[in-house]
Amino acid sequence: MAARPTEPVDEPLDLPRLDEAEMLARARACRAELSRRRSVRAFAPDALPEGLLDECIAAAGSAPSGAHRQPWTFVVVRDPDVKRRIRMAAEEEERKLYRERISDEWRAALAPLGTDEHKPFLETAPALIVVFRHVWGVDAGAKRTNYYTQESVGIAVGFLLVALHHAGVATLTHTPSPMGFLNEILERPESERPFVLLVVGHPEEDAEVPDIGRKSLEEIATFIDGPD
Q: Domain spanning 40-204 has what CATH number?
């Protein structure tokens, strides 16, 4: 006889209602904090505090997901030999990208950022976090469909970036293409696909970032309000 679906069990929502002034103050503080987050490409080798990445990844794991499948795995890489293997494989793909795959328009768009196929930060930073997306899952030995995996893992990565930044950790989102080498190096199953490679650590003491601006609120948002 087939097992019956588990009946959902509800619990009280823990979200106290704040007064309007505090809500606005918190929103402004969050905006100010996140506006200081930048993609860093010059990392110090200093280790991060013990347990810090555990807490940030646990925060990422609280993200919403399609049908609550939680279709993600976060692989933390600190081993120097494994980091070197990842760098060598990533740089090989990046060489092909910059020399053969990207258009002149794409190359021009990257020029202000000063990026190229050299990725020394993959070895210098104390840790890499490789996020894998579960294309499907396995439940009691049977293949199980996962839903909205791209969206779900994207939200979880957003949570992770915010948690790391809030903890004072510099980050870089790196997406060498293709990324299949990460499955091989990290021995991940066929059901998982690399989603993003996060470089995490302290920035170099004299680290610099490109002087770039961000679009204004008016450029990125449209508000459709009802009648007064």
A: 3.40.109.10
